[in-house]
Design a protein that fits this description.
The complex is a heterodimer. By secondary structure, chain A is α/β, with parallel strands linked by helices. Chain A has 18 helices and 22 strands. Chain A has three domains: 240 residues, Rossmann fold (3-Layer(aba) Sandwich); 161 residues, P-loop containing nucleotide triphosphate hydrolases (Rossmann fold); 69 residues, no CATH class. Chain B is globular, with a radius of gyration of 24 Å. The chains are: A alpha/beta, B mainly alpha.
Chain lengths: 518, 406
């Protein structure tokens, strides 16, 4: 009896010693959405644990709770078998948890060494900054990571892959034993990805526990020891890598057989509505290489043209140039319904029947100070004027029509837009533009960060718009989405079109090849 | 029957959410009642009409350019220059009259309504020019609104003084820093409070209509809420800004005319000095958010009224030299009103008032402010008492907070 108890005790000890992170029944709600619903996760020490899921599945929220950015509404968090409550990222850092966010959080104006020790700057005599200590320490960390970066370099001048290494060095400088990486490879080239994978391997050798968020199956299966799949804020399951296969994990992520569902009915292709000929722009309005070289394509009525490409390939820039966001600073020709156009302001494009739904919903799309109705009617205010004044009644009718047309779920027209879910916010923005009765619709990554159900609804919407004779240009960071929706696909790489495929020709492999090989 | 019910429901839905306006109204009434009782002369009881007229005139003048400040703030910008714009507008008006009718002006004779009209138009156009300059500096030169209007805040007053001195040296025998205005039209504006109150109310109604019922108003709020998204939604954001800054400067120009009428003199050295902050304060107390996109005109009107009521209350209670305390009052009211508004919307939940080292150092600061205020107004003894009480109260608050936190 005693032996049994001891054995049990022993087992418990082992279990707790081996578990670096244990999150039990974590729940987190945001206004209008349940981001996480009672999620339980155990991560063994020294393992690489992959967290998989679609956008909006709750991966990032879970990791932000682990690293103290958010506080859970319910549930417990144990680090190295000790119960912890993180009030902020500082608490998490003390407990040895560091996170490398999807959007890197570096001060571009400061040197590499200064970034690594930001907020914990080594001091020398009289409490003055001592840059030399910082530099030496930074150098040794960078050497450890086998990175050829000088600590003196300005961080903003580094490539994204190198900036990521700086973030990792920063995490290591905190003596973090638990490292969270949120989609670290989304902006990396193949070579940089390979180097990152080596670094992760090395860190694991040194006993670091790594939580790795990704929805790229190949990476996950190369790196991870265990895989946890989340979907719509709920835990699907946690498995050892050896017990599963990429296709199985993909099915768990998607849940429904969504990707194979055919959202596109047979297109009836009409006349050419938008033609772009040799669009080039040398305007360098952000630090990355955003130049476009000789981009040409045509879109017909009733057709969806997909534009594939990695981040920074120039997808957004093409759409913005056509829509007039860049003041018409580009060379080449654009024809709308056969007429040559060069829009200098989005309002001109809108009048001519070409509209764009911008990529970053929160930053470029919604007006947080507005209610749902004001957000929807904004682009068609002249339709609700009566005797020179805006008519509330006309607005109500117009918005009611828009809401029922594309099925926006909102408690009332006068609800604050921030209280809607991401998918419904996106629908509000799309309906804002649809009310202007456009002929050509440019959709820039419209499904980023919205849940699976809302995605399916958007796909159906795009299909019905095409059936009504609209031409749609769609970009997306998710290949399956592009493959499902597009009648034709062009692939962009560093500002150039590097491939064009029909719906039947296109495969993920072909597109990735065209998108990565210059 | 049903239509009446719908009408009522709509009205309730529309008016109930205006917490800020209702609480301001209550605060105004409370301040008036408090003053009526505490004031030892009981002016509000014995001369209610005179008191009301004073408050109404001052509120109307502050209110006019508060409307401008509110529109600029709602559009996501800020206009710091309205005080100097007031001085410049008054100077332009009187210089125009001096140039067109020098003899009448110097003899304090009527100059004729045509000339007054031209002078008024000249002032309003000056406002338009200044607004245009602001917009150019902000949208083309890409200065932050704070910097652009800070430059004109100091620049315009200096310009007005130079204009006054150089034109008096040419048009009159002696160079002068002031120009007297004795035209009967201006005198009647001074003597009849309805001119300023009427102008203000009409202007407020127009502004309210613009903001709530026109495309321009909707675009203004969109611009203030999210400038990039507004541009991508096809709004000509630069034009909307142009309207906002011109409206801001022209309302200040209009107020400048009433300042001249009230004081019968254009004095660019001091007229309207520092009043830009009162206007911004009125807008903020009225519920405008400095981050843009949020704010109402009824709120701003009540905010201006509230500010003047409180200032008047202090002058009634203190009697002599109350203008010294005007800045203190405006500052205090802004802090209290905004803190109160935040508390209502629950933004301060669970926050400590005196946290850490900062809280510890804040205790003597607050105690010194309240103590010295009491000492200056009522005497050294009560000052010390207030200071001591404040220290004891704040320290107990701090201890209480520490206890409940742990």
């Amino acid at each position: 009896m005693q032996e049994l108890k001891n054995a049990g005790h022993q087992f418990m000890m082992e279990e707790t010693l081996e578990t670096a992170v244990s999150m039990s029944k974590i729940t987190k709600r945001f206004p209008g959405v349940v981001a996480l619903e009672s999620v339980t996760l155990h991560v063994r020490r020294g393992h690489v644990h992959a967290i998989c899921g679609e956008n909006g599945a709750g991966k990032s929220t879970l990791m932000k709770i682990l690293s103290g950015v958010y506080q859970p509404d319910a549930g417990e968090l144990h680090i190295n078998a000790k119960k912890v409550i993180f009030q902020g990222t500082r608490d998490a850092e003390v407990a040895g948890v560091a996170i490398i966010h999807q959007e890197l959080e570096l001060v571009e104006e400061l040197s590499v060494a200064a970034n690594i020790f930001l907020g914990r700057e080594p001091r020398g005599m009289f409490g003055l900054l001592n840059d030399n200590i910082a530099k030496d320490k930074a150098q040794s960390l960078l050497t450890l990571l086998e990175a050829s970066i000088s600590p003196d370099e300005k961080t903003g001048a580094l490539r994204v892959g190198d900036q990521q290494l700086v973030e990792i060095a920063k995490a290591l400088s905190l003596n973090a034993s638990i490292l969270v990486m949120d989609e670290p490879t989304s902006a990396l080239t193949d070579k940089e990805t390979e180097r990152l994978e080596q670094t992760i391997g090395a860190l694991r050798q040194q006993g670091c526990t790594i939580l790795y968020i990704s929805h790229k199956m190949d990476e996950v299966f190369r790196l991870a020891d265990q895989i946890t799949v989340l979907r719509d804020g709920q835990l699907v399951r946690t498995v050892d890598k050896s017990e599963t296969s990429p296709s199985e994990v993909a099915n768990w992520m998607v849940g429904r057989d969504i990707i194979n569902h055919n959202f596109r009915s047979q297109p009836t292709i009409g006349k050419c509505l938008l033609e772009v000929k040799k669009l080039s722009s040398s305007l360098d309005y952000s630090s990355q290489s955003d130049q476009l070289h000789d981009v040409s394509f045509r879109v017909h009525a009733g057709e969806v043209l997909g534009i594939a490409g990695l981040m920074g390939a120039g997808r957004t820039e093409v759409l913005e140039a056509i829509f007039g966001v860049t003041h018409g600073h580009w060379q080449g020709e654009v024809f709308l319904s056969g007429k040559r156009v060069r829009f200098k302001h989005p309002s001109e494009a809108c009048k001519a029947g070409l509209v764009m739904v911008p990529e970053d919903r929160k930053r470029l799309g919604i007006f947080e100070n507005f209610q749902v109705n004001e957000n929807i009617s904004l682009c068609s205010l002249f339709r609700i004027m009566r005797n020179g004044f805006l008519s509330r009644r006309a607005e109500e009718d117009l918005v009611a029509e828009a809401i029922s047309q594309i099925g926006i779920k909102t408690p009332a027209q006068t609800t604050k837009i921030t209280q809607l879910s991401g998918g419904n916010q996106q629908k509000c923005i799309i309906s804002r533009w649809l009310l202007t009765k456009p002929k050509v619709l440019l959709l820039d990554d419209p499904t980023r960060g919205i849940d699976v159900g809302a995605k399916a609804e958007l796909y159906t919407l795009v299909n019905s718009l095409c059936q009504a004779g609209m031409a749609v240009v769609l970009t997306s960071s998710e290949l399956p989405e592009l493959l499902t929706l597009s009648d034709r696909l062009i692939v962009m790489n560093q500002g150039k079109v590097t491939g064009e495929f029909s719906h039947h020709e296109a495969t993920e492999q072909k597109i990735m090849n065209a998108a990565t090989l210059a | 029957m049903r239509s009446w019910y719908l009408f009522l429901r709509n009205a309730v839905q529309r008016w109930l959410p205006l917490h800020n306006e209702w609480s301001l109204l209550v605060a105004i009434i409370a301040a008036l009642a408090f003053t009526a009782i505490v004031d030892t002369n009981h002016t509000y009881f014995f001369q209610p009409l005179d008191s009301l007229r004073d408050i109404a005139r001052n509120s109307a003048m502050l209110g006019m350019f508060s409307l401008g400040a509110a529109v600029v703030i709602i559009s996501g910008g800020i206009d710091l220059s309205s005080g100097s714009m007031i001085a410049l507008s008054g100077t332009v008006c009187s210089v125009t009259m001096l140039a067109l009718a020098p003899t009448e002006m110097m003899a304090f004779q009527p100059v004729g309504w045509e000339i007054v009209l031209i002078a008024i138009l000249a002032s309003l156009f000056t406002g338009f020019f200044v607004g245009t300059l602001h917009t150019w500096l902000i949208t083309v030169v890409h200065l932050p609104p704070f910097v652009a209007t800070l430059a004109t805040l100091v620049g315009l007053r200096s310009f007005a003084r130079a204009l006054c001195e150089s034109s008096t040296s040419v048009l009159t025998p002696t160079k002068s820093a002031v120009i007297n205005v004795a035209d009967p039209l201006f005198k009647s504006v001074r003597d009849n409070v309805w001119f300023s109150v009427g102008t203000f109310l009409v202007l407020a109604c127009i502004t309210w209509l613009i903001l709530t019922r026109t495309v321009l108003g909707r675009h203004l709020k969109a611009l203030g809420g999210n400038e990039q998204a507004a541009r991508l939604a096809g709004i000509h954001t630069d034009n909307v800004k142009w309207f906002a800054y011109c409206f801001g400067a022209m309302t200040a120009a209009l107020a400048g005319l009433f300042y001249v009428a009230n004081e019968s003199v254009a004095a660019p050295v001091n007229q309207g000095r520092g009043h830009e902050l009162n206007a911004i304060a009125a807008a903020v107390v009225g519920g405008c958010s400095l981050s843009g996109g949020v704010g109402t005109i009824p709120g701003t009107v009540l905010g201006a009224f509230f500010l003047r009521v409180v200032i008047d209350a202090v002058s009634k209670i203190i009697k002599t030299g109350a203008d010294v305390y005007e800045g203190l009052i405006v500052g205090g009211v802004v802090v209290l009103a905004v803190t109160f508004a935040q508390g209502m919307s629950g933004k301060q939940d669970g926050r400590r008032i005196l946290p850490g080292m900062l809280g510890l150092c804040t205790i003597p600061v607050l105690a010194l402010i309240s103590g010295s205020l009491a000492a200056m107004t009522t005497g050294l003894g009560s000052g010390l008492a207030v200071c001591f009480t404040a220290i004891v109260a704040l320290i107990s608050l701090r201890i209480y907070e520490n206890r409940s936190c742990n």
